[in-house]
Structure formats: structure tokens, C-alpha cells
Amino acid sequence: MNSRKGGRGRRVVLWRHGQTAWNLERRFQGSTDIELTEAGLAQARRSARLLAALRPDAIIASDLSRAAATARELAALTRLDVTHDPALRETYAGSWQGLTHDEILAQYGEQYTAWKRGEPVRRGGGELETEVADRAAPVVLNHADKLPDEGTLVVVSHGGTIRTTIGRMLALDSHHWESLGGLSNCCWSVLGEGARGWRLLEHNAGTLPEPVLGDDA
What we know:
- There is one protein chain.
- The chain has helices at 21-24, 38-52, 65-78, 101-116, 129-145, 159-169, and strands spanning 11-16, 58-61, 82-84, 152-157, 188-194, 197-205.
- The radius of gyration is 17 Å and the shape is globular.
- Helix 2 (38-52) runs parallel beside helix 3.
- It is built from six helices and six strands.
- The relative contact order is 0.22.
- It has a six-stranded mixed β-sheet with strand order 3-2-4-1-5-6, sandwiched between helices.
- A hairpin with a 2-residue loop joins strand 5 (188-194) and strand 6.
- Mean pLDDT is 91; it is low at 1-7.
- The protein is α/β, with parallel strands linked by helices.
């Protein structure tokens, strides 16, 4: 799954959308289309100013409104068009969607625990994490392939989809994807293209990525 076409040095920034009311309520959104709060829009504007300094070459985004509105803030600063793709939507989680964290634990405790152990679980009868990666990672890699040498792609998506995409791009076993941890609203992770494929350079960052200097560079 590693993308090497067109030279080295390309970079993929995977950016989670801003805050929604359901985030505040710890309510599972999944593929439900929930808009940004005013605070979420402010987060997007702040982060967009930082990410614009990276001079991205392309922006792709989930078509759900919370991701689309986040992407729009970066597009306004960079004058880039946004390509929307439903393959970048959050995990469909069936009957979990709309429930709070406490309600999920109360109603689906065994299923939740199995998921956290890294077992393949159709949360609420929805998608497996590997199925999310199957639809999202190829889209990211396809757009990364179109970048120039040293180019940067910004992917505006959702926490679960970003984690599974990173796991797939790094060729990690799906059992270990949970170890990547979650993303805060409007934070991002950065993958860089190295000699042996994609490397995780930044995770859950909220400031501009800094170069790695020293023995591990």
C-alpha cells in the first residue's frame, strides 16, 4: 500500500474536523451528518491558518458537513479546490450512532470491550475498521500519487477513519490500530514518505510540524 510513484518527500496531513455538539455530548456520530458548533468553526479557522503555511498542493475531504466546513476554511486561504469523497466519511456504526458513551457501555458493553481489545467488531451492526480502511486509504493514496515531489496533501476527515487509514498506510496489523490513539478536534497527523514507505511524523498535533533533527532523522 506504500505510495512511491513520482519521487520522494511527499507528505500527507490527516486533519480531523472541528467540534460538534455531539462531540461535546460524547455522542457517537459515525456517518450521521452533524454540523460544526461556533467553537468548531473557530477551531477550523485557527488550524487552517497554521496548515496554510505548509503550502499544500491539494485538499480532499469527507462530504459530511463537519468535515466539508473544516476543509472550506483551508481552501479559502490557499485558493485550492476541495475534492469531496464519501469514502472519507466516518465509520458507519449502526445502532451505536446517536448514543452517548455511557449508553453504549450500558447497552453494548461486551461489544465495546471486544472492540477495545482489538477484535474485529461490527459496532452496532456497522462497518469493520478494516472495511473503513479498505474504502478510505486507497483514496488517500491515489491523491498522494498525484502530488509533485515534496508535495503536501491535506485530508480532512474523521477520527476513526483517520486512525484506520494511518494504520493501513503504515502496514500495521489491524489489531494494533487502537494503539495510535485518538485525534482531538481540528488536530492532525502527518505521514511522510521515506525510503521504506510512509512514516508517522506527527500525531494529534495542533501546531506546525517541526523537522526531526538528530540521530533519528
